Amino acid sequence: MTSQTSESKVHKTYLEEDMGRKGIFKWILSTDHKRIALLYLYSMMVWFTVGVVLGLLMKLELIAPGKTLMGPQAYNATFTVHGVIMIFLIVIPGLPAVFGNFLLPIQIGAKDVAFPRLNLFSWYIYVLGSILVIISLFGNGPPDTGWTFYAPYSFKTGTNMLPAALGAFVLGFSSILTGLNFIVTIHRMRAPGMTWMKMPLFPWSIYGTAWIQLLATPIVGITLLMVAGERILGIGFFDPAKGGDPLLYQHLFWIYSHPAVYIMILPAMGAISEIIPTFTRKTIFGYKAIVISTLAIAFVGYFVWAHHMFTSGMSGTALFTFSILTFLVAIPSAIKVFNWITTMHKGSISTEVPFQWAASFIFIFMIGGLTGLVLGALATDVHLHDTAFVVAHFHFIVFGGVGFAFFGAIHYWFPVIYGRMYDNSWARTGWIVFFIGFVTLYGPMFYLGMKGMPRRYFDYLEEFHGPNIISTFGALVMITGLVIIVTNLIKSARSGPIAPHNPWGGTNLEWRIKSPPSLENFDEIPVIDKATYKFD
Amino acid sequence: MSETAVHHDEHRDDLGSKLGMWLFIFTELLLFGGLFIVYAVYRHANQEAFHLAAKQLDVTVGTINTVILLISSMTIAMSTTAIQKKDKKLTLILIGITLILALVFLVNKYFEWSGKISHGLYPGSPVLEELGQGDILFFGLYFFMTGLHAVHIIVGMVFLGVGFMRVKNDRLSFDNYQLLENGGLYWHLVDLIWIFLFPLFYLIT
Amino acid sequence: MSDSSHHIVSYRTYGLILVLLLCLTGISVAVTQIELTRWTMAVALLLASTKSFIVLAIFMHLKFDEKIFRVMVAFVFLVFAAVIIVTFLDYAFR
Q1: Within 10 A of A218 (CB to CB), how many other CB atoms are there?
Q2: How far apart are the C-alpha atoms of A340 and A269, rounded to whole Å?
Q3: Which domains can be identified in chain B, with CATH numbers?
Q4: C18 interfaces chain B, CB cutoff of 8 Å
Q5: Which of A73, A137, A156, B161 has its CA 20 to 30 A from that of C7?
Q6: Is any Cβ of chain A less than 8 angstroms from the Cβ of B136?
Q7: Per-residue model confidence as pLDDT tens digits over A116-148
């Protein structure tokens, strides 16, 4: 990066400040939260590519009934590895580790997170976890249990399931340490004058997320350790032959893995809450309601796990309690949607690319959320459980929710991160192609599920052929969109035009400092005297 | 910004570091929490078998280990007082006692485990297979939970060992003893878990 | 803010607390040796909870620390208790 104006010579950005290190060590030894965020971003991009390719392989297999590309074993392995990569390596660390790391300290007016070295360490653990996942692909063949590692199959399968489970355990540890770091940062390092209720909404969502990371992740950690103990030492935990209860495994697994959905979606919602006021030039409607609903989602979301197990033979009491709780958690989510839409009402909306992502996020999220209620209702779930409907639902939430918010966030904060601008028309084209592809890919799966097409099979009945062709076609369109988006961003990060100061007119601290920020973000720690989201 | 403007670490925040330690303790509590849930569910399902299996464990050994951990908890708590009172020698003695007690605990545990194993009570053993499902679950949990607890004892010893060395070379003294206090907190966590493990495995027969 | 984190607890307090904890341990051992049948579990867990409360309050300095620590610890224990209760909505009614 060459400095072109006299001003940028004085201002040494975090990308230029290399602390005298050489080559790759500029990155892998740096404890700067911004560089660590980019480390996460780049490692996730690699994994995302792998995950997308695996997803595409599955869609290609499903383009026609019978064996097209692969047989049942290969298909089982493909959806397992696709799930493990996408869930544990991408969406769970996704927004917290990338944007949380980059923006949280800046938005609360701090120079870095509370424990910078621990932060770097978390990334190393993330890398270790991904290496374990890679190892699981070799030897006895990739795991075929599904990303949920359900017992008793998970300790009976001959495939390489142990490294994958340990990988998930290690990745969980990375997630815990990141959450720990963020909580301490938010408690201890807010700039003078930034009271809790003056904090922007993205840090708030990171705060809620961090608590889930901290309190839910250890449960799955110990559960995976138990499975490992069962596999290696033959300890009886979940094996019915030894008196164990496989359903207890499902309970423990979902005690984490359901809140994990909120680890993914809360920061996504936080990013949307930042984008929408900026592009409507209006104070966010119901700041307090959004804060409270963030915490409510984090809390109630901790107690809805067993709605993944409605058909497994739980007690009736558990069934209706979890159904009610599931409906309850929809309320704060709906509050947020209401607030975003009300913020737009009578605002002066400029339909820049980030806003388009945010608006389509709301659309996609609502479809995902409402179909979630269909699954949360006991009677309909019995019909739809383990069908393509479920797959469509959670891809609308997990990929639609997190993915759209992630792309929205990266298009929004791109000028802050790289100090450059992307090509607007390509970004817009990428968005529309991606959006059309996304809906074409997952939309038909709702229909297929209702008609009774089960998930996780490489084969299907002839009557499902038509919608499956549409779906596979949608996958190809969506990937075209992805290629456009990512190419545009990579190209622009290297050689895009220098971004003007605060191109969108944002009000948070990250827009008041020079972009890209200097190593310590602020020349002097700012003093906050007014609420954020105040537009002239 | 100039080259010399490095770095954030110089800024010390004891309260922040204590908060970090507590948050870590929370995750540890929930790590064991998952195991306590498993214990509760299986005890609920196998009342009789758990009742009989618990009689196989030696209450005396369990009680001795409980007393050891409680005393060590006190000595490490006292070490914080000692360092605050600038009494380096006493601090070192107190950490030393804690470490020795931890070692005694582990030795006890070793003999207890090997006793069980020599009676053929270990996961996957033929003796256990004959005893039935409740016993398999009980001893599975016993070895896994006390084993994981022992791992935490070792981690705690390393943590306190670092504290000991730092006090010794004066890198840790009355005005920056947070590391020692955090080590103490971790040690109390180990004690806390044992406080529940002890009645659940040894006492409730 | 900072002065309370430098609260010095006397050796005597720690000693007394240890004696108290040892007594409670003795009681729980004694109580569980006599057959209280189904109350044994409740009594033993109650005594263990009391002991852990004392450890948390004195040894772990919660009594002397900022309020935020007490709030957080209480919150975490409540969440965990709630998780157990919710889990047993399945197992107790199956």
Answers
A1: 23
A2: 10
A3: 52-203 (1.20.120.80)
A4: yes
A5: B161
A6: yes
A7: 999 999 999 999 999 999 999 988 889 999 999
* Torsional sign, CA A490, A493, A495, A500: positive
The pTM score is 0.94
CB contact under 8 A, B19 and A184: yes
Q: Which fold has domain A20-512?
A: Cytochrome C Oxidase; Chain A (1.20.210)
Q: Which residues of C touch B184 (CB under 8 A)?
A: 59
CA-based nearest distance A221→chain B, Å: 7
Residue A62 burial class via C-beta count within 10 angstroms: exposed 0-12, middle 13-18, buried 19 and up: buried
Which of C9, C18, C58 is facing B71, going by the closest CB pair? C18
**Chain A residues touching residue C91 (CB < 8 angstroms):** 315
Cβ atoms of A295 and A269 closer than 8 Å:
no
Output the six-digit token pair for B80: 């914080």
Chain B environment of A120 (Cβ under 8 Å): none
Q: Where are the alpha helices (DSSP H) in A377-423?
A: 378-384, 388-394, 404-418
Alpha-helical runs (H) found in A11-115: 25-28, 33-61, 72-84, 94-95, 101-107
Report chain B residues whose CB lies below 8 A from the CB of C35.
none
Measured CA to CA, the distance from residue B169 to residue B173 in angstroms comes to 9
Structure tokens at B158: 């390393």
**Measured distance between the N- and C-terminal CA atoms of chain C, rounded to whole angstroms:** 51
CA angle in degrees (0–180, nearest 5) for A108-A113-A114:
110
- Taking the C-alpha atoms of residue A141 and residue A414, their distance in angstroms, rounded to an integer, is 40
Question: How buried is residue A27: exposed, middle or buried, by Cβ count under 10 Å (0-12/13-18/19+)?
Answer: middle
Report H helices in A395-504: 404-418, 424-450, 465-495
Q: What backbone torsions phi and psi does residue A454 show, to the nearest 5 degrees? A: -70, 155
* Cis omega (within 30 of 0) for bond into A516: yes
Residue ranges per structural domain of chain C? 2-65
From first to last of its 536 residues, chain A has per-residue pLDDT tens of 343 444 444 678 998 887 888 888 989 999 999 999 999 999 999 999 999 999 999 999 999 999 999 999 999 999 999 999 999 999 999 899 999 999 999 999 999 999 999 999 999 999 999 999 999 998 888 999 999 999 889 888 889 999 999 999 999 999 999 999 999 999 999 999 999 999 999 999 999 999 999 999 999 999 999 999 999 988 889 999 888 999 999 999 999 999 999 999 999 999 999 999 999 999 999 999 999 999 999 999 999 999 999 999 999 999 999 999 999 999 999 999 999 999 999 999 999 999 999 999 999 999 999 999 999 999 999 999 999 999 999 999 999 999 999 999 999 999 999 999 999 999 999 999 999 999 999 999 999 999 999 999 999 999 999 999 999 999 999 999 999 999 999 999 999 999 999 999 999 999 999 889 999 999 888 998 877 888 86
Chains in contact with chain A (at least 3 beta-carbon pairs closer than 8 A): B, C
